């Protein structure tokens, strides 16, 4: 037993070295795309929306009460407080080291956040799943499982932005870890699973997808005569109570009536947009060429995913660990139904689907008794790793070069050098669409609107120049091929304005320049 423990420690140390290598590799691309806060909108609009709220949380107020209030009332209720709390905790020491002008160090701040809130939790999740399925008993099996999971293109690409998905999935992974450790004992690990489920729900509504896992786990306890029906009912109620407690503890603003109402309202909006689409109506998953390419490029290969699904179903019926495999299957059914059938196709939505599925499939394949079939399976895994590595390399390269390759940044430099520099008089106010870059340190005022451009908005602010994106013009004018505007957008103020922009006839403005990326309209004399 001692030798076995020593071998497990050595294998774990090897996996830690592999994780450290990946962590260091991600630093260089994560240092790009954040020269200032406005640049965040060019590459990751979510980061641009989140960043000022984090800055405000860490801004000292006139009193201790105001400082604590800034830290607690984070205002961006699309995501739960744990995401902002851990982001703020991560930045406490760097904030002190950076001095009074700390908020101007956008590049350093975003690099730290992307690494600590994006990369680190995902690597931890990969280690957890590897341990649950291998116990680190075999060096080559453990390394193969870990590298395969963290190199999944959808998983790897998620390392390069500051977003709650890695943190939320870590809580999902911890929930499975607790269920696996509990093994129908219904002791402290069962209650820890309930608490982690609450954290997953309180971070980004992932906890709700355990809706089948808990009943299946309790039913297994009943039919294996570990618990009675009456005790199962008590355990179910207790699980919900602990889960709800975790949600409230991790989101203390739920105790305040006004903030509670706002949180619930934004979470309902988030759920609707996730399942139905936001500005563009989502029609559900259809197996066309675009969908197949999306699934292939983000999973690293459909063959291993299909094998894993078949192997998972078989293992839930025959394996010695069929309880655990059945719980994974019970997780995948509702999550896969909502994600693939109802939501917009976004790579990071696939992470809670792909990692449990491929982790289970890997262990089923590695435990094949026939050497011939095991070799075939290993060939499939090696192919998957090669495909994933190719996609991951493309992500690293494109992220490293995203500033020099950005059409938005090039558009700005042309406008600044060829148009604004020659204007008499100089512009006082410029309106821009979200993802058109303008640096922070310019001599004129720059305005954008989360609700997009409308004639009403322009009448209020009277901008001298309009910088509009071609993609946004095509989308909101109904000209974007293959898309359908969500109900309420077609015929709206947005639609009217961007339809005029598409026809180069914005009331009170005339077009002076356009390229593939954007258009420049100047106010009529």
Number of domain modules: 2
Estimate percent helicity: 55-70%
Low-confidence stretches: none
Strand order of the largest sheet: 2-1-3-5-4
Classify the secondary structure makeup into a structural class.
mainly alpha
Instruction: Figure out the total of helices.
Output: 23
Which percent band covers the strand fraction?
under 5%
Name the helix and strand elements from N-terminus to C-terminus, one letter apiece.
Answer: HHHHHHHHHHHHHHHHHHHHEEHEHHEE
Q: Any idea what the radius of gyration is?
A: 25 Å
Distance between the termini: 86 Å
Mean of the pLDDT scores? 91
Main sheet attributes: strand count, strand direction, barrel closure: 5 strands, mixed
Secondary structure tally: strands: 5
Mass-distribution shape: globular
Short description:
This protein has 525 residues and is mostly helical. It contains 23 helices and five strands. A hairpin with a 3-residue loop joins β4 and β5.
Describe the structure.
The chain is mostly helical. The chain has two domains: 2-399, no CATH class; 407-523, no CATH class. It has 23 helices and five strands. It has a five-stranded mixed sheet. A hairpin with a 3-residue loop joins strand 4 and strand 5. Helix 1 (2-30) packs parallel to helix 7 and helix 11 (213-223) packs antiparallel against helix 16 (322-342). The chain is globular and about 85 Å long.
């Amino acid at each position: 037993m001692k030798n076995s423990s020593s071998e497990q420690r050595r294998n774990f140390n090897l996996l830690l070295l592999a994780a450290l290598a990946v962590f260091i590799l991600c630093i260089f691309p994560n240092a790009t795309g954040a020269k200032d806060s406005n640049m965040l909108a060019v590459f990751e609009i979510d980061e641009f929306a989140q960043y000022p709220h984090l800055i405000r949380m860490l801004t000292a107020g006139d009193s201790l009460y105001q400082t604590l209030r800034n830290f607690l009332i984070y205002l961006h209720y699309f995501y739960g407080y744990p995401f902002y709390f851990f982001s703020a905790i991560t930045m406490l020491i760097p904030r002190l080291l950076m001095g009074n002008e700390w908020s101007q160090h956008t590049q350093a701040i975003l690099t730290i956040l992307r690494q600590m809130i994006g990369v680190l939790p995902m690597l931890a999740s990969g280690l957890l799943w590897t341990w649950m399925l291998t116990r680190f008993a075999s060096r080559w099996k453990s390394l193969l499982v870990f590298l395969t999971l963290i190199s999944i293109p959808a998983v790897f690409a998620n390392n390069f932005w500051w977003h709650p998905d890695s943190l939320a999935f870590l809580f999902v992974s911890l929930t499975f870890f607790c269920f696996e450790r509990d093994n129908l004992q219904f002791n402290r690990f069962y209650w820890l699973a309930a608490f982690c489920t609450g954290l997953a729900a309180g971070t980004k509504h992932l906890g709700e997808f355990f809706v089948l896992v808990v009943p299946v786990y309790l039913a297994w306890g009943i039919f294996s005569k570990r618990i009675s029906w009456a005790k199962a009912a008590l355990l179910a109620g207790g699980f919900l109570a602990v889960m709800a407690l975790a949600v409230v503890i991790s989101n203390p603003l739920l105790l305040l009536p006004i903030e509670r109402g706002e949180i619930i309202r934004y979470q309902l909006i988030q759920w609707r947009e996730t399942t139905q689409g936001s500005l563009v109506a989502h029609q559900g998953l259809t197996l066309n060429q675009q969908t197949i390419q999306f699934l292939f490029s983000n999973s690293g290969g459909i063959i291993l995913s299909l094998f894993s699904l078949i192997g998972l179903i078989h293992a839930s019926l025959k394996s010695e660990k069929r309880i655990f495999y059945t719980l994974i299957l019970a997780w995948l059914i509702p999550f896969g139904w909502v994600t693939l059938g109802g939501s917009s196709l976004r790579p990071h939505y696939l992470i809670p689907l792909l990692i449990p599925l491929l982790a289970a499939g890997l262990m089923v394949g590695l435990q094949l008794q026939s050497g011939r079939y095991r070799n075939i399976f290993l060939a499939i895994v090696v192919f998957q790793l090669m495909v994933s590595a190719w996609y991951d390399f493309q992500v690293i390269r494109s992220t490293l070069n995203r500033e020099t390759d950005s059409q938005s940044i090039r558009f700005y430099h042309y406008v600044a050098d060829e148009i604004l520099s020659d204007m008499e008089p100089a512009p006082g106010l410029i309106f821009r669409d979200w993802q058109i870059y303008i640096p922070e340190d310019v001599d004129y005022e720059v305005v954008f609107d989360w609700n997009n451009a409308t004639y009403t908005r322009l009448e209020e602010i009277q901008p001298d120049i309009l910088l509009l994106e071609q993609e946004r013009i095509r989308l909101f004018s109904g000209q974007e091929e293959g898309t359908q505007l969500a109900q309420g957008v077609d015929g709206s103020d947005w639609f009217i304005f961007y339809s005029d922009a598409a026809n180069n006839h914005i009331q009170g403005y005339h077009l002076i320049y356009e390229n593939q990326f954007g258009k420049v309209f100047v106010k009529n004399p």
